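Weekly sync, protein design subgroup
Attendees: M.S., D.O., the rotation student, P.L. (late)

Item 1: inverse folding check
M.S. brought a backbone from last month's batch and wanted to see whether the design step gives back something sensible before we order anything. D.O. pointed out we never logged the input encoding, so this time it goes straight into the notes. Structure tokens as presented (709 positions):
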């Protein structure tokens, strides 16, 4: 009887099973894996240009858009709004659908099974090529993280800047990375507000879960700061199209429109992102507000102005940022003579700020939100400060509701006065590209923004920040290309970042120069109001490359009051009108000067310590006595009726036990006493003048300064 060889049969079954398993695994790899070897049977897809792409009928396009929508999570809503394509026929039929499906699932190419075409999307623009071959074997895909605020209605949110990032990624994948068999794929996340609450956590998810090799965004500084620190630790390059903040030695709490309340912000006076030892992989592609001092300084040099006044709205984040940067920079240049801050949320007599400024300068910078600029210019008109002897400057980065309305025209009865006043105003803005290349880019952004459920409103420009994000991604692609060409490590974030610093290139926003500290030297425009049409027109530029004022050919500033040139730095009669050459009568001049000197030298504000009697009593008791002030051993806590500080409002109307400050009696008047912690006070003419001004202030909401002890 023949025995059945179970061993041989078993071996055969095992071999067949292994072959079937290998075939199945190979098929799965062809369909879904793109890391090292997409397919052993199809190593090259020959791409032939097809000029007639009418074969893509409406049904095919609808099916393709559905497939795009299904892949939206993998590489973002990039292509679904595009219609015109370049169709490239697959030259080999073996497993074409499966292979291309693998490419499609990873967002590398697009395939239409009904027409049998593989094609690459170009966002609505047909691209014709010569016959070339793409070797898709061994393609490597790296993730980059896009992290921005969403639905913030700001010039730098995801809905506006996202399409620009998508366009730039497509370009660098095609121009720089395809020869290296590398593709960058977008991993996207967003957060709801301009703060550091969620951005660091989202960045950590991208790093640990998605293994991103670079970060694009955040834009606003409060989210950027913690993410930039993490990126430095992970050695990942990070690029932003914005990123700036107010320099200050103190903690700031401000409100800023849509950004809401910003809590407890503290950094150094030079601006925290300037210290790249803390952020060695950060590159800022937009303007740096720290450079605004150079723009203004170039204007002041051009017109020989050396005495400048600055008025800052501390209640608005942008105004505070610009103002503090200008204060720090212009003070270093020795140009700043006067600085005042105000709370823009409160109604104040703005004329007082202008009167004070006029004692020190005839050039006034208004770092204010839009509506306040108009109010100050109307106040200047009322004071006669728009007749050509004064000049005002403000900053409007670009026209946007985000910065407020800086226009003179509001449709009210004061429009005519405002228009006349604005003739004395020069405006500093970012240089907005107007070339055909940028306009084509802007058109593409508007179309692709619909994929983000956003539509640009009528008259809304594709702003500078959007272009800055595009240029940032493009620069990153250049650095990757150079690194790969020289055999470097694409994951070395510090090395990649150093390739982006200290270089220039032509970007979508024009000439781009990144300095040796990773910040852009942006270009600016200086605009003047044309008195004929009532519109601001560019009369000069500031180019970051040359750092100097450059007048526009054929344009000139319309100086108010019929002037042919700028007002002088110092008026002929001086800021106070007491220059000798302004008075022919020497006796009159001497009398006026003597009167002023007498007022300044009037020491009635100084009193002897024994003239002040302090009210003292028990902590919560009703017994109150008087005691002479002992300056040597004076202590507020020693004489406080209640420990702690208090408001001085209406001291005479409150019961004594409800007043929380040191109280004294001087010439029968109840007064509040505050100790100044200075060992020595030098009596200088400047101090005497300030004391005179302080004593002259009278308002129902302020406590009048009486004396100094």
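Designed sequence read out in the meeting:
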């Amino acid at each position: 009887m023949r025995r059945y060889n179970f061993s041989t049969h078993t071996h055969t079954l095992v071999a067949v099973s292994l072959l079937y398993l290998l075939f199945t695994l190979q098929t799965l790899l062809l369909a879904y894996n793109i890391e090292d070897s997409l397919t052993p049977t199809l190593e090259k897809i020959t791409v032939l240009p097809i000029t007639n792409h009418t074969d893509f009928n409406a049904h095919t396009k609808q099916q393709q858009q559905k497939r795009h929508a299904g892949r939206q999570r993998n590489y973002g809503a990039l292509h679904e709004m595009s219609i015109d394509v370049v169709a490239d026929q697959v030259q080999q039929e073996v497993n074409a659908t499966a292979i291309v499906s693998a490419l499609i699932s990873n967002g590398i190419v697009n395939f239409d099974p009904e027409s049998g075409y593989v094609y690459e999307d170009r966002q609505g623009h047909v691209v014709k090529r010569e016959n070339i071959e793409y070797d898709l074997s061994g393609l490597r895909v790296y993730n980059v993280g896009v992290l921005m605020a969403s639905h913030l209605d700001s010039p730098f949110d995801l809905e506006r800047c996202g399409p620009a990032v998508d366009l730039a990624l497509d370009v660098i994948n095609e121009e720089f990375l395809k020869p290296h068999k590398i593709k960058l794929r977008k991993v996207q996340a967003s957060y709801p507000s301009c703060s550091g609450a969620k951005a660091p956590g989202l960045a950590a998810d991208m790093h640990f879960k998605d293994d991103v090799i670079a970060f694009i965004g955040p834009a606003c500084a409060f989210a950027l700061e913690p993410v930039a620190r993490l990126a430095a630790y992970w050695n990942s390059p990070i690029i932003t199209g914005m990123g700036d903040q107010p320099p200050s030695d103190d903690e700031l709490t401000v409100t800023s429109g849509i950004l809401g309340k910003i809590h407890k912000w503290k950094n150094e006076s030079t601006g925290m992102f300037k210290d790249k030892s803390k952020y060695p992989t950060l590159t800022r592609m937009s303007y740096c507000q720290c450079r605004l001092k150079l723009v203004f300084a170039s204007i002041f040099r051009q017109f020989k102005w050396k005495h400048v006044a600055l008025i800052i709205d501390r209640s608005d984040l942008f105004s505070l940022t610009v103002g503090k940067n200008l204060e720090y920079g212009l003070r270093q240049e020795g140009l700043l003579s006067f600085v005042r801050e105000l709370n823009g949320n409160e109604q104040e007599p703005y004329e007082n700020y202008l009167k004070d400024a006029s004692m020190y300068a005839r050039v006034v910078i208004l770092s204010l939100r839009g509506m306040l600029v108009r109010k100050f210019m109307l106040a200047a008109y009322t004071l006669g400060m728009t007749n050509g002897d004064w000049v005002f400057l403000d900053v409007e980065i670009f026209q946007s509701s985000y910065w407020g309305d800086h226009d003179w025209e509001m449709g009210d009865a004061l429009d005519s006065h405002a228009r006349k006043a604005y003739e004395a105003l020069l405006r500093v803005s970012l240089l907005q590209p107007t070339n055909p290349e940028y306009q084509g880019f802007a058109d593409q952004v508007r179309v692709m923004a619909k994929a983000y459920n956003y539509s640009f409103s009528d008259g809304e420009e594709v702003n500078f920040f959007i272009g800055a994000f595009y240029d940032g991604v493009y620069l990153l692609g250049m650095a990757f290309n150079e690194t790969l060409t020289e055999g470097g490590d694409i994951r070395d974030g510090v090395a990649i970042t150093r390739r982006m610093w200290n270089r220039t290139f032509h970007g979508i926003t024009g000439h781009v120069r990144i300095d040796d500290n990773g910040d852009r030297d942006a270009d600016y425009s200086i605009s003047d109001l044309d008195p004929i049409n009532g519109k601001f027109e560019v009369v000069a530029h500031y180019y970051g490359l040359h750092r100097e004022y450059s007048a526009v050919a054929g344009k000139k500033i319309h100086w108010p009051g019929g002037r042919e040139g700028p007002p002088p730095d110092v008026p002929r009669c001086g800021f106070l009108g007491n220059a000798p050459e302004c008075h022919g009568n020497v006796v009159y001049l001497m009398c006026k000067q003597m009167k002023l000197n007498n007022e300044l030298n009037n020491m009635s504000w100084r009193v002897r310590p024994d003239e002040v009697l302090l009210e003292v009593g028990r902590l919560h008791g009703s017994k109150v006595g008087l005691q002479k002030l002992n300056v040597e051993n004076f202590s507020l806590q020693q004489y406080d009726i209640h420990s702690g500080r208090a408001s001085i409002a209406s001291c005479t109307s409150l019961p004594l036990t409800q007043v929380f400050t040191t109280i004294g009696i001087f010439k029968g008047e109840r007064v509040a006493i505050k100790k100044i912690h200075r060992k020595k006070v030098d009596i200088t003419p400047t101090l005497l003048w300030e004391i005179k001004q302080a004593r002259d202030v009278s308002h129902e909401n302020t406590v009048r300064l009486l004396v100094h002890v």
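Discussion: The CA atoms of residues 219 and 242 lie 5 Å apart. The chain is about 35% helix and 20% strand.
Action: P.L. to compare against the previous round before Friday.
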